[in-house]
Every structure is written in structure tokens, then in C-alpha cells.
Amino acid sequence: MIAALVLFWGSLAALAWTHVLYPATVALAARVHTRRVALDDAYLPSVAVIVTAYNEEGSIERRLDNLRALDYPPELLEIVVTSDASTDRTEELAEAAGARVIRNPRGGKVAAQDAAVRTTAAEVVAFSDANATWAPDALRKLVRNFADPQVAYVCGRLRLEAPDGSNKEGVYWRYELVTREGESRLGSVTAGNGAVYALLRSDYAEVDPRFGHDLSLPYLMVQRGRRAVYEPDALAFERPTPTNESEYRRKVRMFEHSWLIVLRGRMLRGQSLGYLLALLSHRHLRYASGLLHLILLAGSIALLGHGAVYAVFLGLQLGLLAAALAGVGIARYYVLITWATVVALWNYLRRGVPATWAPQRGELA
Fold this sequence. Notes:
8 strands; 50% helix; alpha/beta
């Protein structure tokens, strides 16, 4: 009985904290105390924009056209396409479009990014996906943050364009960005996004190629005593996957890498109390949501007959599952993505995490 009570109320508190109370606390705290970045719009360092590509012949020309149209001095801008052993015309088309092309053996996105960074002498390295589009001033908005000597990493704002489908990722992403902005204003973000981000070349870190930059680079910069910030005015655009089901498959792959970093990346080592709380709240507990829901469900069943509250929560959980099975958009999205955290953990424990995968259309390996 006592064990069931502890599991029920502990899992309920953890879910409420990571999904509701932590984002609200961060948003409120950021209004009370903001650690400002010393922006300088006149700061224009040399930049290498690095696009990682694996069989992107359908989008690489459009992507390079977009980068050439950036409002940034061309003599300070280098455009690099680093190919992860593409087998289509990606490399040929990129060269014809004027990009510097690096051909790599198949090793995954991070290995290709590392190879590109090693070959550039630019002061700033910026990264993007082949299926993204940047606003004309996105690069200027990113690099102005590096005028502040405390800033080592900047991620921009990814705006998901409405798809011709049923994926509710955009709803979640808007909620996520509110929390990310609050974290940045308090000090540093706990994760970035692969569509639009940049680092000082001198601060770039080569990580385990299975890790990925989005989750690993921010906490590494903070461990070094630097800041990893969010620049909401640096806009990038992507189309999300068309359905909740396709987003589920994408999230399983992403969460496999997230579990690897959480369990093996030493991300909590040497962190300040505030950032440690942010990592535990926004990353560890968020990725554990699926396990917490399973514990909550088991606790609700075990405690039936010991109070109305347990019957109510069992009914709420069964109602959520029924709505998901019935295809109710946001309910189906939440259940699928939450279940993806469990499947990803099982995959990680069972077979580890590969550095590469066979991407679907528009995704990077």
C-alpha cells in the first residue's frame, strides 16, 4: 500500500512538474530576473554556414539559393556542404551552385559536421539542415549575440509551417519555445534545434558522433562557464512530418540519442544548481514521461477502492488513451510521442544507438 502510494503521487508530481509547473515557473522567473545578452547589430564576424546532407538532391539547390540570399557581407560568408557519403547528385549540384563541398565516408551527421569545421578558419560556424529555410536576416540575428564574450552557442527560432496532414508537432513546438526562451533569459537553454544554430569556432566541441549537437552542445558550453542562448529573431522554417505516426517514428530515433546523452553524457557534472534543476526538469523528467505514465497507471489500478482520487485519475488516463485511439489530434500526438520515449529507451538498452540511419524524405542521417 505504501509503495503504491509513493509511486502514484511521485509519478503524478513528476509529470505535473515537467509538463506544467516547470515551464510556468521558468516563464515567471524570467519576467522577474533576466540575464541579458549584450547584443551588437554591428558585429559581423566571418562565418562558415555548414549544411549537412545525405542524398538531398531534391532540396540542396533551393537551400543554397536561400543561403546566398542572406543579408550578410558575401566576403565574410562561406557556404559549405558536408556530404555524409551521398549516393545521389547532392554533391554535384552543391558544387555547381558554388558551395564548397566536403565528401565524407558514411559516419553520420555529427562526423560530417566535425569534418567541415576542421577545414574552416571562420570565426563563427553556423549549422542548418538541407530541408530548412532561413529568413534573410537570420544569420545577422544569430551572430550579434557573440558580441557578448559570455556567449558561446546560439540557437534560433524554428517555425514549423503548416503541413498538409494531421501532425500536431507545431502545437507542442510553440509550447516548447516559451520554455526555451525563459531558460535563455535566466541563463542558458537546455537544448537547441538543428535548423538554425551557431557557435564561435574556438568554442566548437567534437562530441560522440551518436550524441548530436542539439542536446550536447548547450550543456557542454555551460560546463565551460559560457552561455548557450536562444535568439527568437533568428528565424528558420521547416515543414513537419505530415502525420502523428511519422512524427512518432522520427521521435523514437531522436529519443534514442537523448537517452544515450542523459545516461552516458555526464551532462549534470559540474553544473550550477539552477542549470542542474533545468536539466533534470526539462530533459531527464521529460524523457522519462512514458515511464512515469506507466507507473501512474499501475498505481491508479493498485489503489482502486482506496479513495475516489485514484478512480478519477484512472478514468482520466483511460480517457486519454481512448481519445488517442479515436484519432483525436492532440491526444493522439501526446500518447504517441510519450510512448516513443519508452520504445526509444528499450531500443537503446537492447542494441545501443547507431550514428546513422536511413532517413525518410527531408530528414538527415
